[in-house]
């Protein structure tokens, strides 16, 4: 998930940041424009890099068995719950056109969730607090014995909020499917990591190398754990921003792998203010421009410009196209109402993901909570 100017993500809900659904923030990060996006002819073929235990995390574009999502509770979202549930139902119905969707919901909410999402979405009665399945659900890996699920021991983004039920979501999903659980020796969230499926992982130091999640652990300690858990041999760290949003700056609204060797970056307009987010974006771009992946190859950076004409938005609004979700045969991405920017973003994503249908949907209520489509989803990869 992402940084937002103004109040910290989701905590702002309690102070009324959603009062102006449809209301003026620039996007999550500021800074200069990004690099031209690369031609497909320059892309290398993916490889595999299993961990010492034989496990590896596939990239998101690998085939899925299904997508997990979660139904938001009234306790968290209060009077905004109806608008947010509409967005979640819309995302679930859209993904269900391409692959199965299983949505977790409290038993008392299951009927409403089923009615909103339709018969194409399976409702799994599991107690949940919030909708951010990317962070609360297991991060699935493949190994010699098949699927396993890494439980990053979600603790409410460093104990910033109480999420006792969400802290059990990963364990409950794995138990329901009979998938082995791998308890991580570190605390984190799925939105804090991005893998290329070929041995490289991106992360922000501000989120993982942080005493609110991993007290007493150095960056080297955490890097060793990431390599072992997800079967990567190269971790590329960017600085990020501490304490300005509830996630301490997740990677998944800033930089994503379109494929090994190709990183697409959420690129702010030149008019974005010179603030902590501008500096974080510039630092990340400089770091990624100089980085080598697990194969020893330089990264091509593709710019995905953020929208500017989106009307009045709250201070936490996430205006990042990069927070998209790659489903079987499709990419599901946001539409913000800036027609020129929406169209340009869809064209770029089509070129980055040839052969996939690009579908744009409005998720304004979700955006006002500082999150997006990727934050609300978690893929279950198909075992070979």
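^ Assign residues to that structure.
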């Amino acid at each position: 998930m992402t940084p937002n100017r103004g109040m910290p993500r989701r905590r702002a809900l309690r102070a009324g940041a959603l009062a102006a659904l449809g209301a003026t923030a620039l996007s999550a990060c500021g800074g200069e424009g990004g690099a031209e996006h690369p031609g497909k002819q320059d892309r290398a073929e993916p490889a595999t890099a299993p961990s010492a235990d034989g496990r590896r995390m596939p990239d998101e574009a690998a085939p899925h068995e299904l997508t997990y999502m979660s139904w938001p509770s009234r306790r968290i979202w209060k009077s905004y719950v109806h608008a947010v549930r509409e967005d979640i139902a819309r995302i679930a119905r859209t993904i269900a056109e391409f692959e199965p969707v299983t949505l977790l919901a409290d038993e008392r909410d299951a009927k409403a969730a089923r009615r909103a999402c339709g018969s194409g979405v399976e409702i799994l009665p599991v107690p949940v607090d919030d909708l951010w399945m990317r962070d609360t659900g297991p991060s699935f890996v493949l190994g010699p014995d098949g699927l396993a699920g890494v439980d990053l021991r979600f603790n409410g983004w460093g104990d910033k909020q109480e999420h006792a039920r969400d802290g059990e979501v990963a364990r409950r999903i794995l138990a329901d499917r009979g998938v082995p659980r791998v308890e991580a020796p570190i605390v984190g969230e799925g939105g804090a990591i991005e893998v290329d499926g070929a041995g490289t992982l991106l992360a922000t130091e501000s989120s993982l190398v942080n005493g609110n999640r991993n007290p007493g652990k150095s960056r080297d300690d955490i890097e060793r754990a990431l390599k072992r858990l997800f079967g990567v041999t190269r971790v590329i760290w960017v600085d990020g921003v501490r304490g300005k949003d509830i996630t301490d700056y997740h990677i998944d609204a800033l930089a994503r792998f379109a494929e090994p060797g190709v990183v697409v970056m959420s690129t702010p307009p030149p008019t974005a203010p010179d603030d902590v987010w501008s500096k974080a974006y510039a630092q990340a771009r400089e770091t990624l421009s100089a980085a080598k992946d697990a194969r020893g190859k330089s990264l091509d950076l593709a710019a995905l410009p953020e929208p500017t004409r989106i009307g009045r938005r709250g201070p936490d609004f996430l205006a990042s196209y990069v927070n998209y979700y790659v489903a079987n045969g499709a990419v599901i991405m946001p539409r913000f109402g800036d027609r020129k920017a929406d169209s340009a973003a869809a064209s770029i994503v089509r070129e980055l993901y040839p052969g996939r249908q690009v579908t744009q949907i409005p998720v304004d209520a979700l955006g006002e909570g500082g999150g997006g489509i990727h934050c609300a989803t978690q893929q279950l990869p198909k075992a070979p």
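Residues 11-381 form a domain with the L-arginine/glycine Amidinotransferase; Chain A fold (CATH 3.75.10.10).
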